[in-house]
Amino acid sequence: MNIPHIPTDNYYKFCAISGVLLAIFSIYFITKVLIEALEESIILSGEIKEVNLDLAELLRIKEETTKGLEKFFQTANDKNIEQKNIPENLEISDADVNRIQELHQLNTDSIDRSTAIQKAYVQLATKSRLQMFKAIQLLILFPMFIYILLLSIKLAKFGFKNWFEKVQKLNDRILKHEAKRNTSNENKH
């Protein structure tokens, strides 16, 4: 298996190639981290909207339950029944019993949903704190990688410039001189 050799025969080639590789790494890292942060914030935003919709639904159920109970007690008051002194022989219609059971079930369901929403909010708060920590890391790392990117560009420029001016021009002159010598030797024969 042939493994390509990294050009280490020349310091300037090494600087040029190292600068290019560092620049590529810096650009890759910066874009990767920014894209991941953006994706995570979009996901977090969607989860927050979902929990807010659940909360709105829960508030609607609470309002419906409250209105239903108010209506039931208003009907009871209309029948001259005080809530504290309910006569033993009071007959409650099947519709009233069914309505009370429905309201009780709605209340039970809303308590369960409330617990689930509270857990979701705690999870979202944790994710939000993590996202904030990552943002702080980005604020610290981003300038560092920009600095590395600029440094790598400078390193590549230094390497390519000196490689061309100090090594390649000399090699070109040597090749031209050898070519002239070879052509003059061929002309003599």
Structure in words:
There is one protein chain. With 189 residues, this protein is mainly α. It has one domain (11-83, 92-171). It has helices at residues 11-78, 94-188. Helix 1 packs antiparallel against helix 2 (94-188). The longest helix has 95 residues, at 94-188. It is rod-shaped and about 135 Å long. The mean pLDDT is 80.
In short:
The chain is mainly α. It contains 2 helices and no strands.
Protein topology:
Blueprint: H1 11-78, H2 94-188
Average predicted local confidence, pLDDT? 80
Helical region count? Answer: 2
Largest beta-sheet characterization: none
Would you report the number of β strands? 0
Reading the helices and strands in chain order gives HH
Share of residues in strands: under 5%
Low-confidence spans: pLDDT under 50, at least 5 residues? none
> Overall 3D geometry?
rod-shaped
Query: Could you tell me how far the N terminus lies from the C terminus, measured between alpha carbons in angstroms?
Result: 45 Å
| Structural class by sheet pairing and helices | mainly alpha
Please state the CA-atom Rg, rounded to the nearest Å. 39 Å
Helix content: over 70%
Count of spatially separate domains: 1
Characteristic terms for this protein:
2 helices; mainly alpha; 189 residues
